[in-house]
Amino acid sequence: MPNSTKEIRRRIRSIKNIGQITKAMELVSAAKMRKAQASALASRPYATLSSELLSNLIARTNGYDHFEQSDLPAMPAWQAGKSLLGGISPVGRDGKPSRVLIILVSSDRGLAGAFNSNVVNKALGIVKDEGAKEVDFVTIGKKGSDALLRMKYTLVATFPAKDKNVSLLDAEPIAVMSMDDFLAGKYEKVFVVYTDFVSTLVQKPSMLQLLPFVKEHVTRNNEQKTEFLFEPDPKEILDVLINRAVKFAVYQALVEAAASEHSARMVAMRNANDAAGDLLDELSLSYNQARQAGITRELSEISAAKLAMEG
Amino acid sequence: MKFKIVTPERIMVETEADSLTLPTTMGEITVLPHHIPLVASLVAGEISYKHGGKSDFFAVSGGIIEVKKNNEVVVLADTAEFGHEIDVERAEAAKEAARKLMTEGARDQKTYAGAAAVFQKHLTRLKVAHKHRSHKGTKING
Q1: What is the protein's membrane topology class (chain A) (predicted)?
Q2: What pLDDT digit, counting tens, does each position of A147-183 carry?
Q3: Given CB atoms, is A226 within the 8 Å cutoff of chain B?
Q4: Interface of A with B in 232-291 (CB under 8 A)
Q5: Beta strand B27-31 pairing with B38-42
Q6: What is the mean pLDDT of residues A134-153?
Q7: How far separated are the first and last CA of chain A, in Å rounded?
Q8: Which of A8, A259, B112, B140 makes an SS bond possible with A287, Cβ 3.0 to 4.6 Å?
Q9: What is the ipTM of this complex?
Q10: pTM of the prediction?
């Protein structure tokens, strides 16, 4: 507890300044959060519709098993689609993949509470669970890559975080890169680790298996099957659709992460504001006490001096 | 029939339509009410629809169209824009950049194909933007 009034005044001033900054950051994050939340919500109709169509198609084509092997060799694109669904290189003997790629979505800037450390910890947990011999990372956001580099993990690519106006174009290079590497047999599994936006107060670090494209992505509720006419044909449509679904999954992770980041930062800044308020109350109390003590002391000094002079 | 265009970023259009013309990989098709269920992939081009004597059109850069059996058409587009949303200057610049890459920079087939797709996309956007300017009177919304 500082005791000279001058020192207390200085502390009050600096806390007020910091409070102003956190207040401003809270307002900025709140505005960005609203936009990011809106775009996270806006992507959901597409998600529902495309997974509906995909499940329909997979049911219809039986995830490719439906076709004769003899159809395959002439169609590299179609084989690519099959592989995206099923995986090419079988998972190792002990059921553990040997090479895994993890796409980690973090932020470029800090001051967002535990946002970045939570998502990094989630990724490390997956590294442990999968028990893969080699793990490569692709990071989005500076904070994630800094943390992983400190722990000496291999980063194959890093992208800057995009915290506003995320578009499908931002997801495309990431998705294309992981699909290419996956199809080339470089990785047996590809995961996306990101922060799922639940509400302003709750964000959940989550993991999504991007490749092989698991069918859990696909809702299985619509049992009534429509006999569709496919142009050009079901295989090619399925390829196109899976390709898009992978890109879209990456996009959705980016959008959710952006909404979560701003929410987390807004909450962190609100906490900082509250703490600054508490601290100010406490300090002004002790400032007033110190001031009063000073006055009392001066008074008693004056009256003591007067007494001495009279005496 | 019901008709909607959904992109990852938004639901762009949700409306009734009497006829609908789309660019698919197999060529341009027109969908009328009670079309049989169809799934087709789209290429970059222009989607237009008519409803009660009025018409409107959009630029899309590719996607999937699904005609459902309950007289409902869903377009899952990668990107879709109204004519008035397109920034003509930037589209022109992007088109030129893609053309340059196609004629000079393409070292392999993949880059060339990529550049050609981008070129096609911006070409359509420009077409739709210009059409929008000359058609202002007949639009339904936007």
Answers
A1: Peripheral membrane protein
A2: 999 998 888 989 888 777 788 888 888 998 888 888 8
A3: yes
A4: 232, 236-237, 240-241, 244, 248, 251-252
A5: unpaired
A6: 90
A7: 39
A8: A8
A9: 0.74
A10: 0.79
